[in-house]
Amino acid sequence: MISIEQIKEPVREEFMQFDQSFKKAFESKNEILSIVNNYIYGNKGKQIRPLLTFLSAKICGKTTESTINTAIALELLHTASLIHDDIVDDTYERRGKESVNALWKNKIAVLVGDYLLSQSLHIAVKTRKIDILDKITYLGKELSDGELLQISNAKNIMTKEDKYLEVIQKKTAALFSICTSCGAISVDANKEQIEKLNEFGKIYGMCFQIKDDIFDYISTEKEIGKPVGNDIREGKITLPLLYALNTAKESEKEEYTDILRKKEFTKENVEKLINFAIEKGGIEYAKKRMDDFQQEAAKTLEIFEDNILKKHLLLTLQHTIERNK
Fold first, then answer.
1. 211: in domain
2. What tens digit of pLDDT does each residue of 293-310 get?
3. I need a labelling partner for 191 at 20 to 30 A (CA). Which of 48, 100, 115, 305 fits?
């Protein structure tokens, strides 16, 4: 499988500029903030979002300083959202290391998350493009909306696939679609290009989240950096289990709906739910949905000429579907 570093090749120069400025965005004279920010920066991820931003910009035109600032603003917003998510979900591990709230408790974690969110908006203003600022501020609202919707759904046994898709569209896909559309906006792309790249980013995000949800059933904690079955313990019914519940006979699923209703998420019960989802074909169904989305994504890029940038946009999607962590 092609690596993310190989996919970055057409936008290597943009990443060099990004890395220098992104590091500066974490600098602070405040001692506590500096310590926490350095920890966060040192534990940064694969930077898929800047990659999508740069590829989407470059397929439409010549990247600019506005493109770099867009990528920084979005990655900062993403980082802030992860810190806040870990607080909300009582998660104490992120990418195989202790989360900010695990090391510095919730009070400092909330304030650091707020700081990075404000820094994101500050840098977004530097793009000098009101459409980008509008989309980034709207994104903050969508992420919170998605989190609240997920909490609301967890109070009941969610059995509708469209409700699940609505949650992941707001919580995950929205950010990716903003990356691709804002990348295009940063180079003054036309309306059709922006809309098609927005749709591509949305589809990418749906696949990204479905893949993450699959990991919760079949991976080890060492591989993905969080406990297996963690979503189930938090009362989240994701696509593999959702499919199993919707396709099983009433007599087959009674035991499992009872566990979910009573929220009795012991180690034994979590294992039962995982095995039930696997045995009923939940993993295969989730993979099929990703394949369907991948075909849709290819169609969204048909307006662009076949070149290395289009190829690498499609490779980012292939990578997220095939990744093993």
1. yes
2. 999 999 999 999 999 999
3. 48
Say if 323 falls within a structural domain.
no
Task: Average the pLDDT over each of 181-190, 202-211, 316-325 and give the range with the smallest value.
Answer: 316-325
- Asked if residue 256 is part of any domain, the answer here is yes
Q: Are 319 and 2 in contact (CB under 8 A)?
A: yes
- Contact of 54 with 13, CB cutoff 8 Å: no
- State whether residue 325 is helix, strand or coil: coil
Cα distances (angstroms) measured from residue 208 to each of 56, 74, 165, 317: 17, 17, 12, 8
**Considering the domain boundaries, does residue 322 fall inside one?**
no
Contacts of 11 (CB under 8 A, 6+ apart): 51, 54, 55, 58, 63
Nearest Cα neighbor of 289 from 233, 223, 229, 243 is 243
pLDDT tens digit sequence for 235-286:
788 999 999 999 988 888 888 988 888 888 899 999 999 999 999 999 999 9
Q: Which long-range contacts (CB under 8 A, 24 or more apart) does 226-229 make?
A: 226/91, 226/93, 226/94, 227/93, 228/274, 229/270, 229/271, 229/273, 229/274
**Three-class SS state of 220:** coil
164 touches 242 (CB < 8 A): yes
Its pTM stands at: 0.91
Domain count of the chain?
Answer: 1
